[in-house]
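User: I've been going back and forth on whether these two constructs are worth ordering. Before I decide, could you fold them both?

Assistant: Sure. I'll take them in the order you sent them. The first construct and its structure tokens:
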Amino acid sequence: MHDADRPPGASETSAARHRIALSCTVHVSQDVQDAARRAFEQALQRAHLHPAPERAARANPSATGEALSVYERGGAVADALFTGTGLSLLTTRVGPLSMKAVVVLTTRTADDQCRVIVSMVVGDEVAPEIAREMDAAIDDLVARGIVVEGPGWARAVDVPRESLGHPQTAREHGIRG
């Protein structure tokens, strides 16, 4: 059941019923944007992603007016091994720890609000794990009295095209490459 004090969780959306790359868009007050960003960064790290500054350095966030962080997990070799040789059955037993994922975290301020987008621009195998950790971070922010609003979860391709969180824009800026 949806809690009116927060956007719908991933499990409450139609996008989460499919194995696709997801995005989460929320709005917080500008005075708590740093706390929200830290909470989401920690959530991504709990989902076994690590900062990828070399990917972020390829992009030009000033072109979109966003602050940018990029996180990744796995790699091309592990991805090919697990998805290309039938070993994907192994991941159903031990989890998708080796599966490749690239996640973009952007913030953009306007007036007294900050829009935060967390978008899976590469990989969909780990979407449920990332969504679970992000939802826990949102719940924690709400429990601390921080107002979290916005549309919540959707497909990554539904992120506004001008945002670095859109998969095509991420590709054009070298984040996905």
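The second construct, handled the same way:
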Amino acid sequence: MPSSPLPETALAFHHAVRGAHDDLTATLDRLREAAANGDFACYVNIAATMGDLPQPTAPAVQWLDSETTVRARWRAPVTARQHHLRS
């Protein structure tokens, strides 16, 4: 289990940009393992959002803004990077 979710979250960003869904799924599995006790649960949601995947059902994360707003904020860097790489 990773001691910190940050490297896995960065890796999820990389996989999302590349469109590497199998790699992203493996990274999400590791993040879920790290968040099994409820700690770091937001990172699982963030990583799923970066990959434009459905939100996990558990553990529940409560955002300060609407889920739509949060998803847009976390998805935007991925799509911007994809656009940059295609240019």
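Notes on the second construct follow. The mean pLDDT is 90. The radius of gyration is 12 Å.
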